[in-house]
TrEMBL record:
Name by which UniProt lists this protein: Tetratricopeptide repeat-containing protein
Domain of life: Bacteria
Organism whose genome encodes this protein: Desulfopila aestuarii DSM 18488
Family annotation (InterPro entries): TPR-like_helical_dom_sf (IPR011990), TPR_rpt (IPR019734)
Pfam families in UniProt: TPR_7
PANTHER family in UniProt: RAPSYN-RELATED
Region (Disordered), start-end ranges: 1-26
Length: 200
C-alpha cells in the first residue's frame, strides 16, 4: 500500500465538472454556451442560445437571469449593428437593474446606450446620455473617466457635424490635463481643437 500523498498544487477540478453542472441546469448551459458563441463571433448561435436562456429564465421567474440574458442579447445585436434590437434588450435589462437597485450595472448600461444612440445616429440622445454619465464621473471625482467620456463626446459632435462643440470639448479636455500638469497632452488636445475649428 502506497503512503505517497498527492501534492495539493497538482490537484485540479475534475474533467467535465462544469459541463456536468451545466447539464443539470439547461438554462444556465444555454446562457454559458451563448457567451462562448459570442466570444467566438458566432452571432447567430449566440442569439439562439441567449434567447433560449431568456425563455428559461422567464419561465422560472428569475429576474437576475432575465437581466443578464437581455444584456447579452444586447451585445449580440450591437455586434450585428442592429441598434434598435440592442436598445430594446438593453432597455429591458436596465428596467430590471433599476428594480434591483444595481448601481454598477446601471452605470455600465448607461455607457452601452451611448454606443446604441451613436450607432443609430441619434446624436442628441447620445450626448444627453454622455452628460448623465459625466455627472456620475464628476460625483465620483474620476478625471480619467471624465476625459475618456469627453473624448467620446467630441467624436460624437464631429459625427453630428457640430465641430464647434467638438472643439470646445477638446479644449475642456486640455484644461483638465493642465490641472494635472500633463502639459504636453493638454497641448495636443488644444491643437486638435484648433484643427477642428479651422476645418469647420
Amino acid at each position: 500500500m502506497s503512503t505517497t500523498i498527492q501534492n495539493m498544487k497538482d490537484i485540479g477540478p475534475m474533467a467535465g465538472g462544469d459541463r456536468a453542472k451545466n447539464e443539470s441546469d439547461p438554462v444556465k448551459a444555454d446562457y454559458e454556451e451563448g457567451k462562448r458563441f459570442l466570444n467566438n463571433g458566432n452571432l447567430a448561435q449566440a442569439a439562439v442560445s441567449f434567447h433560449n436562456a431568456l425563455l428559461g429564465y422567464e419561465e422560472r421567474g428569475d429576474k437576475t437571469g432575465l437581466a443578464n440574458a437581455s444584456n447579452q442579447l444586447g451585445h449580440v445585436c450591437m455586434a450585428k449593428e442592429d441598434y434598435v434590437g440592442a436598445e430594446n434588450h438593453y432597455r429591458r435589462s436596465l428596467q430590471l437593474c433599476e428594480e434591483f437597485g444595481d448601481a454598477m450595472s446601471l452605470f455600465t448600461l448607461s455607457k452601452r446606450f451611448v454606443e446604441v444612440y451613436r450607432g443609430q445616429k441619434s446624436y442628441d440622445k447620445a450626448i444627453e446620455a454622455c452628460l448623465d454619465l459625466l455627472d456620475t464621473y464628476q460625483k465620483n471625482n474620476d478625471p480619467r473617466g471624465t476625459v475618456e467620456l469627453l473624448e467620446n463626446m467630441a467624436e460624437i459632435y464631429v459625427e453630428a457635424g457640430t465641430v464647434d462643440k467638438a472643439a470646445d470639448t477638446y479644449r475642456t479636455i486640455a484644461k483638465i490635463h493642465r490641472n494635472y500638469k500633463h502639459n504636453s497632452i493638454a497641448d495636443s488636445f488644444d491643437e486638435k481643437a484648433r484643427e477642428i475649428a479651422a476645418g469647420a
